[in-house]
Amino acid sequence: MKQSSYFIPTMRDVPADAEIASHQLMLRAGMIRQTASGIYSYLPLGKRVLKKVEEIIREEMDASGAIEVLMPAIQPAELWEESGRLGDYGPELMRLKDRHDRDFVLGATHEEVITSLVRDDVKSYKKLPLNLYQIQTKYRDERRPRFGVLRSREFLMKDAYSFDTSKEGLDVSYEKMYNAYTRIFQRCGLEFRAVEADSGAIGGTDTHEFMVLTEVGEDTIAYSDQSEFAANIEIAPVQAEYTKSSEAAEVLTKVETPNVRTIEELVGFFNHPADLMIKAMLFLVNDEPVVVLVRGDHEVNEIKVKNLFDKGVVELAAPEQAKQLLNCETGYIGPIGLPANVKVVADLAVQYVVNGVCGANEPGYHFQNVNPERDFEVSTYADLRLIQEGDPSPDGKGTIQFAKGIEVGHVFKLGTKYSEALGASFLDDQGKSQPMIMGCYGIGVSRTVAAIVEQSNDENGLVWPTTVAPFDIHLIAINVKDEAQLNLADKLYDELRNSRYDVLYDERPERAGVKFKDADLIGLPIRIGVGKKASEGIVEVKLRKTGEMFEVSVEELNEKLNEIVSKL
User: Fold this and answer.
1) 371, 405, 419, 534: least buried by Cβ within 10 Å?
2) What is the pLDDT of residue 202?
3) Are residues 428 and 476 in the same domain?
4) pLDDT per residue as tens digits for the range 251-298
């Protein structure tokens, strides 16, 4: 492809609103452009990388026995009503009506559609197992789109769905997908780790996320320093042992605390450690108020709170909602003297607090010498906090450490959640009707591209792994006014393409410095410069990843390229 006629609008300056490397470099290298908040156009370079990742995914999915289909992005809302998710999925689900006032949704995921599809056409155990996948655009109305295509409202996703006759069959399907995902991300040149995870709005059990390790990751991985345990902190169980102080319970006292709201401010005001503070947060569970308590040195785990209430819609209350329901500002909420309709649940550590401090549900006041059960009742104690570094590993081996990661893939064992709700059943070998046993397997294709960029860059630009690079070789005619250089570059362009290399040929009438800067920014694995020694039949080869440069005669170029490619 000749660069003079190709659309690569590179940028010299870092865009002001691009916070992380992948967002900055994908914009600067001319891969993407923003159309609206969280909505991006993929330009030719970006599209080529997407295609390379898609090809890897298709090869591994096909090799695993999965079969490609394509389902509609617009889905009838009644399918989501059948599954029970129309109300549960939340505001991220984009909804619309057609001209006949019928309700539809834009596909955030496709469990309902695929289940109805298989339900209508597969009736016998003889047609199972079956695994169908697609690569298609998904839509989620993210509250805060950011980081470019890492968290956007429209994105490309590969989603697969397995149907089996038994849990043992599902185990086999799950393992095939787990292994296929491992190969996919290895081939994409990623450093990643598979971790235990929460199934979220998808549902099901026994799930794993595939996390690309990077410091800008939005997810935190909790892992043991002495074993293979690894989990997203959203679901990592806490196995800490707590002890209760033997000191006597003192008299409950209400203390004026003007402008003291945070745990840090309370620690300074009362001169007590944070583990004696009781932090209270107001949640709405199916629009009913619930106060969740944790110790001051711990953080509420919203996923665990949602899982405690299973099928409820659970959301953290906004400050104005707290004011309306409790007549209190956040920062002063506490479990004592709450309205009768407010339920109180607490993390396991809270019951061991002796003579603690909590909000008094009155601006500017806190209670001192608070003792659970004596001063307030808790309806349920459960593991409701985030695991912390230094906590014992849940498997009993070592202690917990943290690492940052970007989720690029997720595999779920759905069981019969959707097949029972939508009536997807089969006749077994005894002629008895049974619900299909399902699995679900997703890869964020566009997110994977951003994750690759996040891991594969340096101070000069992108450094593409060979398997996903938009082109194999960047051929540069350094001075197109020099007839010997231009003629040799034209000749090499034809020869390299005939050798089945994807070549980006820079024959623009630009200065050498501009061309080299663009080449480093775009980051193709191999750069071939045709310069002053063109008349001698010598070119300069540079490896983008290592920076290694050497001169090669045209006669030896193919052999040298074969040697280089075999090592990349």
Assistant:
1) 371
2) 44
3) no
4) 999 999 999 989 999 999 999 999 999 999 999 999 899 999 999 999
Give the count of domains, the chain.
3
With respect to residue 162, please indicate whether it lies within any of the assigned structural domains: yes
Contact 385, 294 (CB under 8 A): yes
- The two structure tokens encoding residue 267: 């620690």
Higher-confidence residue of 229 and 9: namely 9
Check residue 339 and report its DSSP letter: -
Question: Which tokens is 232 given?
Answer: 């997203």
Q: In what order do the strands lie in the sheet with 95-97?
A: 74-76, 103-106, 95-97
Query: What b/e string do you get for 505-527 counting C-beta neighbours within 10 Å, with b at 16 or more?
Result: bbbbebeeeebbbbbbbbbbbbb
Mean pLDDT for the chain?
A: 94
Beta-sheet strands, E only, within 214-273: 219-224, 230-232, 253-256
Cβ atoms of residues 297 and 274 within 8 Å: yes
Residue 236 sits at φ, ψ, to 5 deg, of -60, 120
Q: What is the DSSP letter of 393?
A: P
Query: Which CATH number characterizes residue 533's domain?
Result: 3.40.50.800
d(CA 42, CA 138): 15
Cis peptide before 91 (omega within 30 of 0): no
| Inter-CA distances, 455 with 379, 452, 474, Å | 46, 5, 21
226 and 90, same structural domain?
A: yes
**Residue that is written with structure tokens 């309370």 in the block:** 266
Give the domain range for residue 53. 3-237+402-454
DSSP classification of residue 375: S
Q: Specify the residue for token string 């002053």.
A: 532
Name every residue whose Cβ is closer than 8 Å to that of residue 86 and which is 6 or more positions away in sequence: 77, 80, 93, 105
Helical spans, DSSP H, in 157-299? 167-187, 263-270
pLDDT at 200: 56
Residue 500 CB partners (closer than 8 Å, separation 6+): none
Q: Is 253 helix (H, G, I), strand (E, B) or coil?
A: strand
Report the CATH number that the domain containing residue 27 is assigned in CATH.
Answer: 3.30.930.10
Q: Give the Cα separation of 206 and 439 in Å (integer).
A: 10
Per-residue pLDDT of 359-409, as tens digits, reads 999 999 999 999 999 999 999 999 999 999 999 999 999 999 999 999 999
The C-alpha atoms of residue 72 and residue 110 are separated, in whole angstroms, by 9
Both structure tokens of 298: 């711990």
pLDDT of residue 311: 64
Here the tokens at position 98 are: 């057609």
How many CB atoms sit inside 10 A of residue 468's CB? 23
Residues 369 and 320 grouped into a single domain: yes
